[in-house]
Specification:
Residues 130-166 form the Adenylate kinase active site lid domain. The protein contains 8 helices and 8 strands. It has 219 residues and is an alpha/beta fold. Helix 4 (64-75) runs parallel beside helix 5 (93-106).
């Protein structure tokens, strides 16, 4: 059986987190989230972790060379010999090429790239639908979780609501646009290498997962 060495892609709000959990549980592979390995490397004060902390403490972006080093350190560990899933890496074309080189050196090449695709307009509606009761902090959603009585909080009966800055449609639109710009060259790159599998993320969570399962079992 082919080892499952995966890259998981998808725009914010596409449901990557939920699907990642299921993939890891069912296929027994290591979930490598860049946020987690960064924190781990800094906590353990590895050479690359110390370098990364230097940039983060100054409020600067961590350069690709350091990010790539931290990912390579993680991929060289024995617990990923039976498969891994990268989440949050690569973020750009240079990182994707670096990933090819390091996985070649380690003899752990990427076998598939799973891209959970959702129409950006749908994502904007999903991500900007959240609103919060000003009085008690109860959270609602315009699409999935409206108050039982329009304009009245179910919990405390208050009538004033607000939206967090990062939930506002303009902020969300900008975030989606930035991520689309980053993802598009990666999608083309992996398509050319015949590694890309597009999954329709605009359906029920279980249906999304069964589509992913079919792909992974076929590998």
């Amino acid at each position: 059986m082919t080892k499952l060495n995966l890259v998981l892609m998808g725009l914010p709000g596409a449901g990557k987190g939920t699907q990642a959990q299921r993939i890891v549980e069912d296929f027994k592979i290591q979930h490598i989230s860049t946020g987690d390995i960064f924190r781990e490397a800094m906590k353990n004060e590895t050479k690359m972790g110390v370098e990364a902390k230097g940039f983060i403490d100054k409020g600067e972006l961590v350069p690709d060379s350091v990010t790539n080093g931290i990912v390579e350190d993680r991929l060289s560990m024995d617990d990923v010999n039976d498969g891994y899933m990268l989440d949050g890496f690569p973020r750009n074309l240079d990182q994707a090429k670096a990933l090819d080189e390091m996985t070649g050196r380690l003899n752990k090449p990427v076998t598939a790239v799973i891209n959970i695709h959702v129409d950006p307009e749908v994502l904007i509606a999903r991500l900007s639908g959240r609103f919060i009761c000003k009085n008690c902090g109860a959270t609602y959603h315009k699409l999935y979780n409206r108050p039982k009585v329009e304009g009245t909080c179910d919990v405390c009966g208050h009538h004033e609501f607000y939206q967090r800055e990062d939930d506002k449609p303009e902020t969300v639109k900008n975030r989606i646009a930035v991520n689309t710009k980053l993802n598009t060259p990666l999608i083309d790159y992996y398509e050319d290498k015949h590694l890309l599998y597009n999954i329709n993320g605009d359906q029920d969570i279980d249906d999304v997962y069964s589509e992913i399962q079919k792909v992974l079992k076929a590998l």
